[in-house]
Amino acid sequence: MNNLLIVWNDVNTVGIPIIDEQHRGIVTVINSLYYALNGPRSEDFLEPVTNMLMAYTKVHFSAEIDILEAAGYPDVDNHRRQHDELIADTRRYAISSLKHDDARIMIDFLKNWWINHINREDMLYKDFLIKQAPK
Hints:
There is one protein chain. By secondary structure, this protein is an all-alpha fold. It has a single domain (24-132), classed as Four Helix Bundle (Hemerythrin (Met), subunit A). Helices cover 78% and strands 0% of the residues. It has helices at 17-37, 42-71, 76-100, 103-124, 126-132. The termini are far apart.
């Protein structure tokens, strides 16, 4: 039985070790909530996982923006705006999930975040950062 919503593989890497580690951490959080969702006590996991995700995004987004700025990434302002929107969306979906006691609301949001931000938007800076990396 596969209890994972997202299976990490090399396609998901951006080639910057700390960002890749943090992305793996986000996948762990998503998969933990997904696992709980399919168990008898998913409601017990929703609030702690949501709190963990809120804290994690602050750390991750700060690190990612710092790296993009240091590398001179030309679209850093747009990426920062996307992060601000994701933080607001995370809060909104967390509140809705908790209000309705429904982890599926948060799972759907997180899956969409994984597909649309991490696997699309973050991949846009991948080649730029790899070219900027010290040889």
